[in-house]
Design brief:
Number of helices: 9
Helix content: 25-40%
Number of strands: 13
Shape: globular
Bound molecules: nicotinamide-adenine-dinucleotide, uridine-5'-diphosphate
Oligomer: single chain
Strand content: 15-25%
Length: about 325
C-alpha cells in the first residue's frame, strides 16, 4: 500500500541497539519517517531518548521472531544480539532471531514490496583460511560450536535473503559487517573495544584473551552507517553480499596498547584463556564496496577510539544514563 505522502517510511529492526540507534538517527536526519522495532534484549531506550521528540520517529516493542504487519517502503534488519556473551546467553533464541526473524521481515518485504537490508556479519567466514576475506570466500565455520548459533543463523539468513530474491524478486541488500565500535556500545557487552576502554578508564587490568596476536579490523560506527545507507541507495542489481568494514588490521595486543596510551592509564596487560572457536585473523577486502558504492572508511582507529573513550568516560561518570548489568528480555 503506497503512502499518500512522499516521505519514505523506513523500518529499522534492532533500532534501539548500538548500530540501530545510529542508523535511526541518520535516517531521521535524512528526512525519513522511521519506525524502530526492538524487544530491548540488548538495546536500550536511552539510546533513542534524544530522538523521541522527532515527529517522524516511532518506537514499537516487538520481537521479530513473531510476524509484524506494518506498511513500509524500506527495511533495515538489524535485530540480533551481536556480542558473543549476549548471543551465547540464549543460543536457541539467537538462531530463532536470525532465521525466524529473517523469514518474517522477508515476508513483510514481499507483501509490501519494500527494499530490505540485512545486517550479516564477517562471522559467516568463521575462522577464515583465506586472508583478507573477499565476498566469494565461503568460510570456515564450525556448525556445532558455541559461536554456531550466531554464525550459522546469519548464514541461513543470507540463504533466505537470496532465495526470496530469486524466488519472489524481493529487492535485497546483504552486507557483511566487520567489527564496528563507537559510542552507545553496551557497557557490559564484553566486546573487545568496550572492555579495554572501560578497564583502562577504571585503571583495571586489561584482559587479553590468548596471546593477543589474533587480529581484527575495527570500523568506526559513523563510517559503517555511511556505507549501509549508500548500499541501500545503490542500484537494484547491487544486492551483495558486500563486505563493510575498515581494512586496517591490528592485533588485539596493539589495540590494548593504543587504548592504554590514549587513556593514559596505569592498567597492566593480563592474559586469559582464548574463547573457543575465536577467529585468529579477520580483515575485510572492501574492493567491492569501493567500486560499487564509492565508499571506504575515513576514521582512523586512534581517532575513533578517542571519541569512544570520551563517550565511556561520560557514562562512567554517570553523566549519561547507566546501562543494565546483564541482558534481559
Ligand atoms: P546490539 O546488540 O547493540 O543490537 C541488536 C539489537 O537487536 C538490540 O537493540 C536488541 O535489543 C535487538 N534485538 C535482539 N533480538 C531481538 C528480537 N528478537 N526482536 C527485536 N529486536 C531484537 O548489536 P549491534 O552491534 O548494534 O548489531 C546490530 C546488527 O549488526 C546485528 O544484527 C549484528 O549481528 C550486526 N553486526 C554487528 C557488528 C558489530 O561489530 N557491531 C558486526 C557484524 C554484524
Ligand atoms: N509476514 C509478516 N508480515 C507481513 C507478511 C508476512 O510478518 O507483512 C510473515 C508471515 O507470518 C510469514 C512470513 O512472514 O510467516 C513469511 O511470509 P511469506 O509470505 O513469505 O510466507 P508464507 O506466509 O506463505 O508462509
Ligand atoms: N578479546 C580480548 N579481551 C576481551 C574481549 C575480547 O582479548 O576482553 C578478544 C577476543 O578473544 C577476540 C577479539 O578480542 O579475539 C575480538 O573479540 P570481540 O568479542 O570484540 O568480537 P569477535 O570479533 O570475536 O566477535
Amino acid at each position: 500500500m503506497r503512502h499518500y505522502d512522499s516521505i519514505k517510511r523506513v523500518l529499522v529492526t534492532g533500532g534501539a541497539g548500538f548500530l540501530g540507534s545510529h542508523l535511526c538517527e541518520r535516517l531521521l536526519a535524512d528526512g525519513n519517517d522511521v519506525l524502530c522495532v526492538d524487544n530491548y534484549f540488548t538495546g536500550r531506550r536511552a539510546n533513542l531518548a534524544h530522538l523521541l521528540n522527532n515527529p517522524n520517529f516511532e518506537v514499537l516493542r516487538h520481537d521479530v521472531t513473531f510476524p509484524l504487519y506494518v506498511e513500509v517502503d524500506e527495511i533495515y534488519n538489524l535485530a540480533c544480539p551481536a556480542a558473543p556473551i549476549h548471543y551465547q546467553f540464549d543460543p536457541v533464541q539467537t538462531t530463532k532471531v536470525s532465521v525466524h526473524g529473517a523469514i518474517n521481515v522477508l515476508g513483510l518485504a514481499k507483501r509490501t514490496k519494500a527494499k530490505i537490508f540485512q545486517a550479516s556479519t564477517s562471522e559467516v567466514y568463521g575462522d577464515p583460511l583465506v586472508h583478507p576475506q573477499r565476498e566469494d570466500y565461503w568460510g570456515n565455520v564450525n556448525p556445532v560450536g558455541t559461536r554456531s548459533c550466531y554464525d550459522e543463523g546469519k548464514r541461513c539468513a543470507e540463504t533466505l535473503f537470496f532465495d526470496y530474491h530469486r524466488q519472489y524478486a524481493t529487492r535485497i541488500k546483504v552486507a557483511r559487517i566487520f567489527n564496528t565500535y563507537g559510542p552507545r556500545m553496551h557497557i557490559n557487552d564484553g566486546r573487545v573495544v568496550s572492555n579495554f576502554v572501560i578497564q583502562a578508564l577504571r585503571g583495571e587490568d586489561i584482559t587479553l584473551y590468548g596471546d593477543g596476536t589474533q587480529t581484527r579490523s575495527f570500523c568506526y560506527v559513523a563510517d559503517l552507517i555511511e556505507g549501509i545507507v549508500r548500499f541501500m541507495d545503490a542500484p537494484a542489481e547491487i544486492v551483495g553480499p558486500m563486505n563493510l568494514g575498515n581494512p586496517v588490521e591490528f592485533t588485539i595486543k596493539q589495540l590494548a596498547e593504543m587504548v592504554i596510551e590514549l587513556v593514559g592509564t596505569k592498567s597492566r596487560l593480563v592474559y586469559k584463556p582464548l574463547p573457543s572457536d575465536d577467529p585468529k585473523q579477520r580483515q575485510p577486502d572492501i574492493s567491492l564496496a569501493k567500486e560499487m558504492l564509492a565508499w571506504e572508511p575515513t576514521v582512523a582507529l586512534r581517532e575513533g577510539l578517542a571519541k569512544t573513550i570520551a563517550y565511556f568516560d561520560k557514562v562512567l561518570r554517570n553523566d549519561a544514563p547507566p546501562a543494565r548489568k546483564s541482558p534481559t528480555i
